[in-house]
Structure formats: C-alpha cells, structure tokens
Specification:
The protein is mainly beta. It has a domain of 88 residues: Beta Barrel (OB fold (Dihydrolipoamide Acetyltransferase, E2P)), CATH 2.40.50.180. The chain has a six-stranded mixed β-sheet. The longest helix has 8 residues.
C-alpha cells in the first residue's frame, strides 16, 4: 500500500463564541453538544453557589452552572438572549448558562495569544486558554476543564434533583 503524506498541518481551531457581561469568550467547539434556549431550572439545596440547578433534556438530568457566578460577575438584567451551552467536561455532560451565543469562529493556532502574565498571577486566570484579537474584538478563550475542576465534577455527579 502506498501512502501519500501531506506536509500541510491543520492549524485552525474552532470555538463557540458567547458573551458574559459584554465580554466575548469562547470554548473549543469539540466539547459543545448543543445550545438551548432558557428553560425551567430546578434549584438544588446544598449545591455550590455557582450551580443554578438541574434541567431535563431528553430524559436526562443535567446540572446547569452559571458562568457569571463562577467568575464573580453581577446578575444579568437582560435575560432575553440567555442560552445554556451543553458541554462535555471530562466525562460529564453539563449545562453552562451564558448571556448570549453569537457564532462559531475558526482561528489559526498562530493567532491565539497566551494570556497576560497578570492573569497567571490571579487564581481566576487559570480558566484562560488564550486570547484572540479579530479587528476590534478581543475574545477570551476558556479552558473548560479548568473552569470546573475534577473535584467539583465529582461533587456534581453526586447531585440528585
């Protein structure tokens, strides 16, 4: 069998872009399962403060986290464009509540800048994968596996509605 190898490497990465308090952020598209309109969230007692509750999606119970609360942001006054991004984080499927979802963006690996050092010195900087500047927009790329730690996922997997 003859193999033809190409020297061209795929260096583009795709991200789902969303907003939180007017800031653009993105997750790698590979972890995103779907985007839902807001629905009834059933609150949970004794859950961490960033856990909104659970939703029922096609006979499955999913935990919904508020990224606003996770990042210490104020509550959103305009909820008309809110969405729940269903993602796979490690081995668990969860929902992430965001202000709005805008696009899927293809970014060349070379255009992803490392986070500023000041973020590295702050604990919340661990969430940032990198930054992308497109024209006048700056998009913060987030690392889902660092937003929700393995310990938190273990705790969340034991939550029952």
């Amino acid at each position: 069998m003859i193999r033809h190898e190409t020297t061209e490497k795929k260096t583009d990465r795709q991200f789902l872009v969303f907003s939180l308090q007017g800031e653009l952020m993105g997750f790698p598209i590979g972890c995103v399962r779907e985007v839902l309109r807001p629905q009834q969230i059933h609150p949970l007692v004794h859950a961490p403060d960033f856990v909104e509750g659970v939703i029922y999606v096609r006979k499955s119970v999913l935990v919904v986290l508020s990224l606003r609360k996770r990042f210490g942001l104020k509550a959103n006054e305009d909820t008309s464009k809110e969405r729940i991004i269903i993602c796979k984080v490690n081995t668990m499927i969860i929902g992430l509540a965001v202000d709005s979802v805008s696009e899927v963006l293809s970014v060349s690996e070379k255009n992803i800048m490392p986070p500023p050092e000041i973020l590295a010195m702050q604990n919340k900087g661990r969430f940032v994968l990198g930054l992308v500047r497109l024209n006048e927009r700056v998009i913060t790329l987030l690392d889902l596996e660092k937003i929700v730690t393995r310990e938190e996922l273990s705790l969340l997997s034991g939550i029952k509605p």
